[in-house]
Amino acid sequence: MIQWFLKYRPRSLKDVENQEDAKKELQEWIESWLKGKPNAKAILLYGPPGVGKTTLAEALANDYNLELLEMNASDSRKLQDIKSIAEKAAVYGSLFGIKGKLILLDEVDGINTREDLGAIQGILELIEKTKYPILMTANDPWDPSLREIRNKVKMIGLNRLGKYALRRILKKICQSEKIECEDEGLDYIIETSEGDARYAINMLQGIGEGYGKVTLDIAKAMVRRKERELDPFETLRDIFWARYAWQAKNAATSAQVDYDMLIRWISENIPIQYENIEDIWRAFDALSRASIFLKRAKAGDWDLLSYAYDMMSSGVALAEIEKKKPNWKPKWKKYQFPSYIQLLSKSKDLRDTRDEIIKKISIHSSFEKTVNYTYPYFLIFFKKYEKRLSLSPKEKEYLNSALKS
Question: Which residues are ATP-binding (predicted)?
Answer without folding.
Answer: 47-54
